[in-house]
Structures are given as structure tokens and as C-alpha cells.
Design brief:
extended; 1 helix; 54 residues; little secondary structure
């Protein structure tokens, strides 16, 4: 989503979450666009209380 506020019910600290996968392969073109400014404003670099847990 364009805004972290639209991430209702999900953990905004995990913008890409993969669990229990073996042998993952990602290929092809394209861009993962995190719509930076809204998300970076909440990053753990700016808010030390939001350090990733994993």
C-alpha cells in the first residue's frame, strides 16, 4: 500500500515477509517499490523503538 496506515491488521515492520519456504527463487524484471517516504519516516533508523525483531 502507498501508506503504512493502509496496512491495517498487518505488521508494518514486515513489508516483505517469507516464512517456512525452502528453495525460493525470484526472477524476472520489475521493481519492489516501497513508496519510500511514508515508510522511511517510520524506519528503525529514525525511531529506535522500532528495531526489527528478526
Amino acid at each position: 500500500p502507498a501508506s503504512p496506515d493502509e496496512w491495517a491488521g498487518r505488521d508494518p515492520m514486515k513489508w516483505l515477509y517469507i516464512y517456512g519456504v525452502d528453495g525460493l527463487s525470484v526472477s524476472g524484471g520489475g521493481t519492489i517499490d516501497g513508496v519510500g517516504q511514508e515508510w522511511w519516516a517510520r524506519s528503525c533508523k529514525r525511531k529506535k523503538t522500532q528495531v526489527p525483531r528478526h
